[in-house]
Write a structure and sequence with these properties.
This protein is mainly α. It is built from 16 helices and no strands.
Amino acid sequence: MTAAVPRPDISRRSAAVSRRLLPMAPAVLLLGLFVAGPILWSVYVSFTNAALTGAAATSPEFVGLENFRRLFADPALWHSAWVTVVFTVGSAVIGQNGLGLLIAVLSRNRNRLLRNTVGVAVVSAWVLPELVAAFALYAFLNPEGTLNALLGGLGMEQEWLYSAPLLAVILGNVWRGTAFSMLVYQAALSEVPTELAEAAEVDGAGALRRFWHVTLPMIRRSVLTNLMLVTLQTLGVFTLIYVLTAGGPGDATQTLPLLMYDEAFELDEIGYGATISLVLLAVGALFAVIYARTLREEV
């Protein structure tokens, strides 16, 4: 009985596939090490009573689904999930995405001086480290800050971080993150042929109709891609909210990242905090799936 000899075409195909996949090996290794690794560790810890101090810090015990049963019975989870959704939709989907698109459209075909001035003003907030931007916002919004100084003559001073805390952090995140959306839409609009808009104008279409029926369909994939990126980025915002309000007053601005931090590092319950992180991961995955399916339908 003779051994089977590999077919030459199959061997060549396998070698070609190996040559294409080999350059991806370092990227796959890094993704596994820095992305999949922490996720798998969080999944493991969420089934234990791991803590920062005490006996559970050195010898955590397996507790099964206890952390999940406790979490889903905790009203703080549903409140934080709702605050997270409002914060994400308000600051990312509506604020950063809408304002970035508006600035890109209005600055299109304007003179270079105006475009550069607007670009520098918007991008300057984006390039600031998040901690520095948060302190700048705090200085602007605190009772003795710039905003109250400007409104003092109108008698409208108030403690903005206490009277409207969620609105304050939403506007703060819009201010800091709009530059990314603006740059994405400026690049997308530069690829739209001007002949199409000019033809629609000759046919009598106004500016709004030209944008709705000509420009927007041409950049719809950029819109969906930008929405996915800013949404996922906003879901993880922590420093900005923590510096401005620390989740307060009360729990008015306690998003899921802040709830996770409080449980894991303020109350020392690492296992319970890891369980909250999985919920946050699930929310991000839900948004990503919705955007990815919509993008695939657009192809």
